[in-house]
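Give me the fold.
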Amino acid sequence: MSNWYYGGPPQARRGALSNSLLKRRKRRKMAAETEKEEAQNLQIEFEWILHEEVHAVLKQLHSILVECARRFPVPLYDNEGKKQDKFVLTVPQDQLKCVVTLTGDAITHADISFKVQRQQQSHQNQRTSINQDSPWKLQQVQDAANHLQQAINHIDNVDDSYTFKTSDEVLHVLGNILGALQRGRTSLVIPKKKSIDELMKSRNMKSLSPNLPEDLAISFYLQSHKLIFAVYQLTNIQGTMKFDSYQGECSVPWLNEVLVLFTVSLQLCQQLKDKVSHSTIPIILIL
């Protein structure tokens, strides 16, 4: 009776334990087979990404970047460049007016006039110009073009028939492309900061005819899709030097198109990088 009370006869208990053990083993075996099947599917998917999708995305990326290169006004990837545009930059109350001709990566002509404050609250009209014999260089354009060319070169260096063997190989290529694209976009969006002293001593200031007084400096630069013309006036107030500035701007259509293509390329490249980063060749256990 006691055996029955505490779980039944020994043979029944052994039978129950055996059935339970068999069920657990069966569940483990089914789980292992499922895991093995999932691992095999993951490996197939990973190899497809490595061998097929990477090349497809690189080809798509190449097309976008070549299209971006065509928008640049400088010779770049079979693009003849030297596109010429004319822009008018103004601010309210006629404080500043600037008519510029942008050819390639330089301002080849400009008629510039602006008002500066002199003693006793009076204003003086200042005029100067730029001519094609001494153009004002916009280094940002050439820098962005150089970085874009590097990105295209990184893709061109990958043969269409090449078989990537590891994710590290792909990530290395994508890292190089991303780096070049980020530098190119940054060149256009974020101009390098310069001190007033650097602006006044800039070789571009020698492009002006006539030269400006020593307390004045001007600057042309790109910021996002805009061309900006800025005037800086240095003043001495009771022995303390300070400067005032104001600016005019205009939208540059080709810049807007280039930045859109840069952004699309960066997103496409980053998406592929994330996909490859999160994919690994799984270890298949043979049970």
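Strands lie at 84-90, 96-103, 106-117, 123-130, 136-137, 208-209, 216-223, 226-237, 240-251.
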